[in-house]
Structures are given as C-alpha cells and as structure tokens.
Amino acid sequence: MQNTFDPIIAVEGLRKVVRDADGELTILDDIGFVVMPASSVAIVGASGSGKSTLLGLLAGLDTASAGTVRLFGEDLTQLDEDRRAALRSGRVGFVFQSFQLMPHLTALENVMLPLELRGETQDAIERAKEWLQRVGLGARMSHYPKHLSGGEQQRVALARAFVTRPDVLFADEPTGSLDAANGEAVINLMFDLNRETGATLVLVTHDIDLASRCATTITIEAGRIRQPSAAAES
Ligand SMILES: Nc1ncnc2c1ncn2[C@@H]1O[C@H](COP(=O)(O)OP(=O)(O)OP(=O)(O)O)[C@@H](O)[C@H]1O
Ligand SMILES: [Mg+2]
Asked: DSSP 3-state helix, strand, coil percentages of the chain (rounded to 5)?
C-alpha cells in the first residue's frame, strides 16, 4: 500500500535491451532512483541517451528486460498490460514526444477522451474546454490534429494529460515545439498543477529553464545515470 512518505516511483537495477539487426542493443543499464510524491524531476541527456525509453518504462508503457519499477507502490514488472493500464488510468498523465493525438478526433474530443475512458462523461466537455483555454487553444477546439501546428498539437497533448488531474505527469520534451512565450506558459501550468494538486512531475527536457525549475535532475549518459562525482570530474 502507498504511504505518504513512500516514493511514488522507485526504480532499481533497470535494464532495457532490444534486438536489432546487429544483435543485442543495451538502451538502459543499471538505472536506479526514487521520486517522492509532489516533487519534480528533470531527466536530461544527449539525444539517443535513453530518456524517452526510460519515461515509457516508468509509466508502464513499455516492459523492462531486468530490474523493477514501482509506481504508486506497485511493481509494474509483475503486472500484465491490462493491469498496468488500469493503474495508469486517471492517475498518470503522459505527454509523448510525438504527441500521439487521435487523428480522427478534434482537439476537444482528444482532450475529452481520457475522461470518457474513465466514465467521467457528465462534465467532460466543460473540463476539456477549460484545459484547452488554459493552454491558449480556446479558438482551435474543433480543429483536427492535421490542421494544427506542431506547437498547437503539443498543447492539445498537454491539455489531454492535465484534464484528469493526474497524480503523476510524465512529459517528454513538453516545451520542445513551443516558442518562448508558450513554453513559459506551459511550464507555469505544470508547476501550478504541481503546487495546487501535489502532482509529481517527471519531465524529459533539453530546456535549461525547465530543468532548473525542477527539484532534482537526473542526467542519462549512454543509457546510464551519470553520477554526481563523474559530473564534477568532467
Ligand atoms: N525499439 C528499439 N529498437 C532499437 N533501438 C531502439 C529502440 N528504441 C530505442 N532505440 C535506441 O535507443 C536509444 C535511446 O532512444 P531514446 O528514444 O530513449 O533516446 P532519447 O534520449 O529520448 O533521445 P532524443 O533526445 O533524441 O529524444 C537510441 O539510440 C535509439 O535508436
Ligand atoms: Mg526522446
């Protein structure tokens, strides 16, 4: 059972190996850390270092080759896909690097979807509209993703992740497609959520301003966590 003083995420000995044409490729190795409730963590590192892979494993969207990930006190490696999805539902918001909006749904319908999946249909329209307004898309609600710019799609993806008021928000480069003003607005929204509802933020980012607002930073280097002593030497 999850206790207030327990980590909301606890990772130990995490490893991800995939098979490719040349044999086995180790994407992540020996990853371990904890995240406390209501905190904020920035995951940083060079392109290809394994950040998106790690985020997918933390949220139970992908399966590890070895090690454990505990989310809300539950060992994800012991749960099948259905039970991982049930654990995520409503408690986890995820913003993908590639947004992954439903192409046949409007912006408004995309944001309503997680509420509908949870059976929270009664005020779904109002809540979805409110979040689209908060990300500055009040005038784009009936647009389909292909008629939205990259930054607008990113903001729809953020509204979709926020609308259920998740306990943990995982976001992969949430400001990656935004200009400075919209990026700042989105950063403020995430930290408002963190302050108002105690949502834990786990953010992959290349944005130095965003990383500096997080309580802790984890640096990934070629699939491993760079230890502070190594950082001090370099
Ligand atoms: N399914 C897969 N099969 C083979 N290689 C993979 C697979 N998934 C990821 N990789 C490789 O693992 C490495 C880490 O990928 P990942 O997407 O996690 O990087 P990243 O740190 O998020 O990079 P970026 O900052 O560019 O988004 C990359 O070299 C990528 O090519
Ligand atoms: Mg990535």
From this structure: 35, 25, 35
What's CA 205's distance to the chain center, in Å?
Answer: 11
Best residue among 27, 54, 57, 205 to mutate for probing ligand 1, ranked by most atoms within 8 Å of CB: 27
- In this predicted structure, what is the pLDDT of residue 2? 60
Angle ∠(224,62,198) on CA atoms, nearest 5:
80
In ligand 1, the atom with minimum distance to the C-alpha of 97 is 27
- Is the pTM for the entire model greater than 0.85? yes
Establish whether residue 20 lines the binding site of ligand 1, counting it when its CB lies within 6 angstroms of any ligand atom. yes
234 lines ligand 1 (CB under 6 A): no
Q: What are the DSSP calls for 34-53, one per residue?
A: EE-TT-EEEEEE-TTSSHHH
pLDDT, averaged per 10 consecutive residues of the chain (234 residues), comes to: 80 96 94 97 97 97 96 95 90 93 98 94 96 96 97 95 95 93 91 94 94 96 83 46
